[in-house]
Design a protein that fits this description.
264 residues, alpha/beta, seven-stranded mixed beta sheet, two-stranded antiparallel ribbon, 8 helices, 9 strands, globular, Methyltransf_11, methyltransferase activity, Methyltransferase type 11 domain-containing protein, methyltransferase, transferase
Length: 264
């Protein structure tokens, strides 16, 4: 899912935008996105942040040898930029068959990129623990604006947890602050070690006191500290979630990469 940003709706309502034949469509429905991509003609657009802004997080936590799942890829350039930066296997998924076909044609000659029409709430086509990393910027937010938002969010997070290998990471870029995102990440059945970063929106000109790679401490309840207010009120929250389960042997390249980072 990619285009102009969805509303930063932290509720669990039934937000929608657009219609087809007089029927209101929500952000969680394929019909909405199919119609939108037809209208936009496949013009590239990255939600929230481009790769150059997210690169410090990706390079720190995701080694280039990783098998990576790009959730809600839309027409974004991020996967192309990551291939240029040395990443070797990115499986891009989106609910819209229209944009998937557009991207397949656009990148047919780049073997590192694969495009599949998949609903993130049901990724049963992939076996358990088949990815080292998953990245989402905006898809969970879109589901939170759609019908059956709590159920959709739970289905997505549980599926991502199922697909990530132990020691792998889920990088979530969202408008949602910890009070409305950590409960979804920490639902029963998931066991994430969550580290939060805050990234100003592109074009923000105010002064930022902390470096973007400085983690923001969370309380025991998974909330921002009392009195903590981001300098940019429209900041994006970057949750780096490491899957904490029993590790066996050398594990994934992600595990080895993080261990090397700690030794340097």
């Amino acid at each position: 899912m990619s285009s102009s940003s969805p509303p930063p709706d932290d509720g669990e309502g039934e937000g929608s935008d657009g219609n087809a034949g007089g029927k209101s469509l929500s952000y969680g429905e394929a019909e909405y996105w199919d119609a939108r991509y037809v209208e936009e003609g496949g013009a590239p657009y990255d939600w929230y942040q481009r790769y150059d802004a997210l690169r410090p997080f990706v390079r720190r936590f995701v080694p280039p040898a990783s098998r990576l799942l790009m959730i809600g890829c839309g027409s974004a350039l991020m996967s192309e930029d990551m291939v240029s930066d040395g990443y070797v296997e990115i499986v891009n998924i989106d609910i819209s068959s229209v944009v998937i076909e557009m991207m397949r044609k656009k990148y047919f000659d780049i073997p590192q990129l694969q495009y599949l029409r998949v609903d993130v709430r049901d990724m049963s086509m992939f076996p358990d623990e088949s990815f080292d990393c998953a990245i989402d910027k905006g898809t969970l937010d879109s589901l939170m604006c759609g019908v059956d938002a709590p159920l959709s969010a739970a289905q997505m997070v549980l599926e991502v947890d199922r697909l990530i290998r132990p020691g792998g990471v889920f990088i979530l870029i969202t408008y949602g602050d910890p009070s409305v995102r950590v409960p979804h990440l920490n639902q029963p059945g998931c066991n994430w070690k969550i580290v939060l970063y805050i990234l100003p929106r592109p074009g923000f000109t105010g002064k930022i006191r902390r470096h973007v790679l400085d983690p923001v401490p969370l309380t025991e309840r998974g909330r921002l500290p009392d009195g903590f207010v981001p300098e940019d009120p429209d900041s994006h929250y970057v949750y780096v979630c490491e899957k904490m389960q029993v590790l066996t042997g050398a594990g994934s390249p992600t595990i080895n990469h993080i261990e090397r980072e700690g030794e340097e």
